[in-house]
Amino acid sequence: MRGNVKAIKALDWLANAMAFLAGVITLAVTFLITASVVSRITGGSGLPWVLELTEYALVYICFLSVPWILQQNGHVRVDFVLERIRKRSDAAYRYMQIVTDIAIAIICILMAVYGIKIVSSLWQRHVIISSILNWPKAPIIIIIPIGFIVMATQLVRVNIERERKRRLTAVAPAEREEPK
Q: Quick check: 7 pLDDT over 90?
């Protein structure tokens, strides 16, 4: 059990660190856009590379923040369907949550595997993005498979914790009853 606690703490740390990095990138992009606008207002030509950097940053912000959002159980769900199922059967509701999260985790793993193949190919071929910055493409999109791997792990973890809490709450009332 101790290994599970260490793994959960490591995953929490990773998700928090990724979210913090997403916040830092967001703050940096905000300052860069502001600097570009001020440069134009004061008669300069602006910072033409800021738009391109912002586009790359948005990908990083997305894939760095999603694992933390999953950790907080803040992701979007189609609640109206789940709530209708919950009204009819708690067991069916729990089953749908598990099936949905596992299906999404499988999709995340498939996307990660495919993303790793693409990044590897781009790296081997030394693909450069023809633009103002002329950066290699692989380091820019490597966050996509990394994000999908951490997302899949978070989805599995959220399901395990939800099931553990459900079992604890189901057992707790029975343990509280005193023998007659």
A: no
